[in-house]
Amino acid sequence: MAPLTRWLVLGALGAAVTAARPFRVEVAGRSMEPTLRPGDWLLATRAGRVRRGTVVVRAHPGRSLDLVKRVAAVPGDEVDGRRLGPDEYLVVGDNRSWSTDGRAFGTVRRGAIEGVVRLRYRPRPGLVR
């Protein structure tokens, strides 16, 4: 690869990483079992498309705590007889009996979703689905 091309590729990669602003999250509870377990470390990015099935990080509505949940419904979906608005998402835990989630605190706006989980890197590396 030519030096100029290499610098352009590295610059574009650096800009993409900066824009995504990756951050880490430790799973503390059982609400996402069996997908995620307490002690798992996750890498999330602030940028990313939020679709049904995506695992996301959001701030707890009443405490200074991050929650890791799965998007169960997206704008336009019907939930409990009501169609979600253009900026509404319903997030729930995979382990519903152990999860405080959108069933308790309602839908969230896209701005309340702090990040999209990309992978689990410790203790069992792998993509999060």
Short description:
With 129 residues, this protein is an alpha+beta fold.
Q: Could you give the topology of this structure?
A:
Blueprint (H helix, E strand, L loop, with lengths): L2 H18 L1 E5 L14 E5 L9 E5 L6 E8 L4 E2 L2 E2 L4 E5 L9 H4 L2 E2 L3 E10 L3 E2 L2
Antiparallel strand pairs: 1-2, 2-9, 3-4, 3-9, 4-7, 5-6, 7-8, 9-10
Radius of gyration: 17 Å
> H/E element string?
HEEEEEEEHEEE
The number of strands is 10
Low-confidence stretches: 8-16
Taken from the alpha-carbon principal axes, the silhouette is globular
What is the first-to-last residue Cα distance? 35 Å
Structural class: alpha+beta
The main β sheet shows up as: 8 strands, antiparallel
Overall helicity? 10-25%
The number of helical segments is 2
Return the average pLDDT rounded to an integer: 85
Percent of sequence in beta strands: 35-45%
